[in-house]
Amino acid sequence: MDALRVDLLKQVVEEYKKSSEFKMGLVHMGWVSLEYGYQLALARLRARHPGVEIKDDPFTLLPVDADVPMVEEQPFDNSPPLADE
Hints:
The protein is mainly alpha-helical. It has a domain at 1-46. The protein has helices at 2-17, 20-48. The radius of gyration is 21 Å and the shape is flat.
């Protein structure tokens, strides 16, 4: 009985790891890790070398950008491509 349960749990985990939700979760975690690592490295650099000038990232979201009018819901499919494509 226990062996059957363990096999079933392994099968469920394997099926979940094949799902697009799992893959997109990994992609999102990578983005978050990369952004956090960048901010951490930048903070350390500024702390160790206070006089250094660093160009800002052009893709950083700034408060001045909040006033730009734009469509609230822009259709965009960010999911990984399907296997049959």
